[in-house]
What we know:
The structure holds two protein chains of two kinds.
Chain A: H1 4-35, H2 42-58, H3 63-89, H4 94-115, E1 134-137, E2 140-143, H5 144-166, H6 168-178, H7 180-185, H8 190-215, H9 220-236, H10 242-258, H11 272-296
Antiparallel strand pairs in A: 1-2
Chain B: H1 2-13, E1 17-20, H2 34-38, H3 40-44, E2 63-72, E3 75-76, H4 78-93, E4 102-109, H5 113-126, E5 131-135, H6 140-151, E6 155-157, E7 170-172, H7 176-190, E8 196-201, H8 206-220, E9 224-229, H9 236-247, E10 252-256, H10 259-271, E11 280-283, H11 290-296, E12 304-308, H12 319-331, H13 341-358, H14 367-375, E13 402-409, E14 412-421, H15 427-436
Parallel strand pairs in B: 2-4, 2-5, 5-6, 6-7, 8-9, 8-10, 10-11, 11-12
Antiparallel strand pairs in B: 1-4, 2-3, 12-13, 13-14
Helix pairs in contact in B: 4-12, 4-13, 5-6, 7-8, 9-10
Amino acid sequence: MPAWSDFEPFIVSGLALGGVYALSGVGLVVLYRATGVLYLAFGAVGAMGALIAWSLTQAGTPGWVSWLVCVAFAAAVTLAYGTVFGPALAGRDPLVKAVATIGLTLVLYGAMDLLWTTSGGEARSLTLPTDNSGFSVGQILVNWTQVIALAAGVVITVATGAFLRYTKLGTAMRAMANDRVITATLGVPVRRVEAAAWLGCGVLAGIAGLLLADLVALDATTLTFLVISSLAAVLIARLRSIALAFAAAIAIGLIHDLLTPITSLTNYRDMTPFVLAAIALLVLSRRRVMTQSREEA
Amino acid sequence: MLAAAVAIAAAGCSSSSNSTTSSTSPTSTSSGTPSATSSAAAGAVDTSVCGTKPGVAATGTPIVLGGIVTNQPGTSFTDIANMAAAYFACVNANGGINGHPIMYKIETEQTNPAQIAADAKQLVQTDHVVGIVGNTSIIECSVDSAYWQKLGYYIIDSGIAPECYSTPNSAAVNMGPRYSSDGAVQYALAQGATKIVFDQSNVPGTGYIAAGPAALAKAKGVPIVQLTENVPISDADSVAIKEVDDAGPNGAVVLNFTPPEALIILQAAQKLGLEDHVKLWGCSTPCNTDFLAQSLGPKWNNKLFVNAELLPPDVTNTPTMNLYKAILKQYGKAVSGGIGSFSQMGFTEAEIAVHALESITGGTYTVATVNAAFKAVTGFNTGMLCQLWSYGSYATHIPNNDDSTVTPDNGKMVTAQGCNLISAVDPQIAAYRAQAGTAALEPAS
């Protein structure tokens, strides 16, 4: 077993990784709470936005313009998908809604594979100005992009929670998640509210794509499927609690990285999100069974 | 929606084939990559010297060759076959092989053994190929080796799997991951590294690859830590921290990854300020691209040392290297990576194949004559390797076992160490040299 000092650097990297998962996880919960859709294309739209930003930067476009284009692309694609397919899928089973977003994922993933091929050993990277400065923690340097990613997770969690709880639009979104038909009967402009939720989710996907392209890798496969690890945090939060999704994401990142220096476990650390999600679901379902049994007794 | 998804995904991922013949239109459009457009020397070279009858298109019966390459998300070797196709297009436009154009069939696969076996049968039974050139696949050698031996095909390829080097019917122009990693570790040991951390992708065959570096380190009495990482890497920070912690300040971290994965690790190390926490960083051949050097920036100048299985194109001014650049520029529109190891390998394989085909007398191009010619190639100066290339009747083939080392220099890879034989401390190298004798050691110049 390594000494405690061996684990210290991995706390920092684990927090950064947790922040990465949290960014995606929070976005997924927000949309699910508003529309009942588990948006599995979250990673793909962010990835394509980031690759577009990279191409623009390579062509000489100022960095801030390409970053805005990244966010705008993700927002536009997500809004378009929600506007076109959202109403048609509104009455369908949640599983059908989730699987439909895999269609969008495959379209974008195929397009990225064609447009930004990895043949010939092409290696791309997207760097932000905040990468070049930071502060030291022990032997490693923490850059401001990592801090921003973690802070963005916190800010988005708090802001979204407040938005859903205290604003009229947020209340309408929560009502729609419970019952779309009754909410519409009460005079809520359902389509407009849904569009706002899709747009917000798309903006988050764009921001997450940009940050993840810098923090993890500018690679279509990595960014597209990173959302699967974030799903574990979302499942632990049972698709309801934004704060719990954030906390679960941070915990997953920390545990994942703290396993790295343990030789016997290091090659299994990528299982962390799924093991934790499975444990959480088992515990939660057992508690529900026990509660039901008590009520029946 | 799903239909569209399937259609696009299929276009990007599924098995496919294409071919090129004398009808391939030459184009003056550059590949658009920085390297492909930058060579003044290439512009001055007349590509017609690739054939025996400059300017005369070959119109005879096609000689059908084939190749199988991996093409899947994250791993694509299509540039190698596409560069071979570019070379063949040049030959076809300038006389062909005694008037016969080369028709080149390329099959792509996604690391699926059944698909790879079917690809081989497709080439043999449907396309009636008489030779296999340009194969580059993660597992093709393992899957098809027995099939090629049974039918009498002698493959000219870029090797990855052990069977590309350890069987009688495969001879590669590259050193592959094991011997390239040997070269990178050998350089690190020569620089005085007191500990080696060797990290590679967690894919089948890692034990085979790791055995070479382990033998070299053991012979020097230097401890070695073997690591593997699941790819794609999503936690590069923790990977970089672990590597540096394990290596220590006088140790070396040697990576064996594809360029995107290696870049992720190296950039993570840089962002964490860890690049100077070890004596040096090493990498096997895939890192030898200007893309990587440009992405890394000047902090890695003389800090990262990459094994180069082929001569560095940017600083080699020879007729062959200039012809390679000119053909790439004129015929290599499909070679997306431009100048680099992959396209050099494709060029070299096609060059050897054409050299062998031109040696066939009587104008009969069958499986027997073509493969006998391939096997008979001896002491051929490819202009791309440190040593002369031979096929020969050996139980194993490692015809490229002499390499150089490059390092980033402000966005380009430049030579850090010239040609240097891979140590025979690796038992596989020793076994090959015992069979091939001086043919395994002859320098190119």
